[in-house]
Amino acid sequence: MDFAVRPEMQQILAGIQQFLEQEVYPLEPEVAARGFKALLPQLRATREKVKKLGYWCPQIPKDYGGMGLRLLEHGLVSAVLGRSTLGHYVFNCQAPDAGNMEILIAHGTAEQKKNYLEPLLRGEIRSCFAMTEPERPGSNPLWMETTARRDGGHYVLNGHKWFTSAADGAAFAVVMAITNPEAAPHRRASQIIVPTGAPGFKLVRNLRVMGHHGEDYASHGEVVFEDCRVPQTNLLGTEGAGFLIAQERLGAGRIHHCMRWIGICERGFDLMCRRAVARELAPGKPLATRQIIQQWIAESRAEINAARLMVLEAAWKIDNFGQLAARVEISCIKFFVADVLLRVLDRAVQTHGALGLTSETPLAAFLAGERGARIYDGPDEVHKMVVARQVLKKYGLQIPS
Predict the structure, then answer these.
(1) For a tag site, which of 92, 120, 155, 289 has the least CB within 10 Å?
(2) pTM of the model as a whole
(3) How far is CA 219 from the centre of its chain?
(4) Residues 102 and 148 occupy one common structural domain
(5) Long-range CB contacts (within 8 A, 24+) of 362-368
(6) CA dihedral 65, 70, 73, 75 (to 10 degrees)
(7) Is residue 139 a part of any domain in this protein?
């Protein structure tokens, strides 16, 4: 198992870190104070600088204008970008756009690529992904109520979605909807491209998440489809392949998320250590002299290192043997890294005291935004069940599906 980083990649990582420190970190307090939309002109200008430096779309093949990095290499980039609340957005590798780009490359028709993929790759538009429904458990992607009925040369969609991330301001949604209700559970749903301007598409509201309303890219929307009509040519892949396509994007997506969480851990760790040294409890007695602070720092360093190696192993296995071979590793990193993330952030906030609860540092934003890490892309409990079942099969346990 080779995790060696080629010299060119080391230079890329150093260049991206320098760019974040000089160009992106200074924007964080501005976004916190004024909101995402108010900073869009500055963010667009910063994105243009990323393009000129050649760091645009690191996860996308060179033929499509990206850097063409392998999954493991993009994981390393993601860990650096994760240090900033704006990192992935500025480099055009943010969820859910990154996943939508990947499935459009793999399954999109020539027309779909021209109309949706190409402007998405150029950063001219954004997209969203609509799967989770308020009436059904998000942990069961086989059970949903939104339907897409054939009518002439169109699909007519009806249904109710929420936690449609980044729907506010998106140009189109990739929607999971039932097209074949009588088929086997894994073949009932399809993925369909729905322009947000289509009649019958309604963004009801941006959900308040951990007290934050959210706006534009940094939002989670509730969406309703009321006789929303789109051409059948908007079908992604084949009819009934929605679940399989979703699984394709989730394996690599979990690597992206987990390495982003590693980046957040590193930023939180750095801030915690700086605060521990700079903050004095009394003259000449900094926080860092206290045993409990030293314990938090030691445990955090060990946990971050362990989490990073677990994710790199999973990425290496996917790169070399495919997602199916890495099923256990993918589930392991999902719950393990999420747990490390929240522990490190909590320690960092505690070390800062009341300051850690404010917007004077990115810690509160990280903590509010990432508590969902244990829920989205499959709750921890489901991933633990997957791991246990795979392990116990080797011991002869037969578990009915």
Answers:
(1) 289
(2) 0.90
(3) 13
(4) no
(5) 362/28, 362/32, 362/84, 362/85, 362/267, 362/271, 363/268, 363/271, 365/32, 365/85, 366/85, 366/264, 366/267, 366/268, 367/342, 368/209, 368/210, 368/211, 368/212
(6) 90
(7) yes
Which one, of 180, 198, 192, lies nearest residue 107 by Cα?
192
Residues 19 and 44 occupy one common structural domain: yes
Each residue's pLDDT expressed in tens, for the chain with a length of 401 residues:
767 778 999 999 999 999 999 999 999 999 989 999 999 999 999 999 999 999 999 999 999 999 999 989 999 999 999 999 999 999 999 999 999 999 999 999 999 999 999 999 999 999 999 999 999 988 788 889 999 999 999 999 999 999 999 999 999 999 999 999 999 999 999 999 999 999 999 999 999 998 888 899 999 999 999 999 999 999 999 999 999 998 887 777 888 899 999 999 999 999 999 999 999 998 999 999 999 999 999 999 999 999 999 999 999 999 889 888 999 999 999 999 999 999 999 999 999 999 999 999 999 999 998 999 999 888 999 999 999 999 999 999 887 65
Number of domains making up the chain: 3
Same domain, 112 and 131: no
Length of the chain: 401
> How many Cα atoms are found within 13 Å in the side-chain-facing hemisphere of 227?
0
Question: How far apart (Å, rounded) are the C-alpha atoms in residues 270 and 134?
Answer: 38
Tokens 């709750």, located at residue: 379
Q: Which domain holds residue 264?
A: 244-393
Q: Are residues 199 and 267 in the same domain?
A: no
CA–CA separation, 334 vs 383, rounded Å? 7
Instruction: Report whether 316 contacts 1 (CB < 8 A).
Output: yes
Packing angle of the helix pair 242-278, 327-352 (nearest 10 deg): 30
Domain of residue 101, CATH code: 1.10.540.10
Are 134 and 200 within one domain? yes
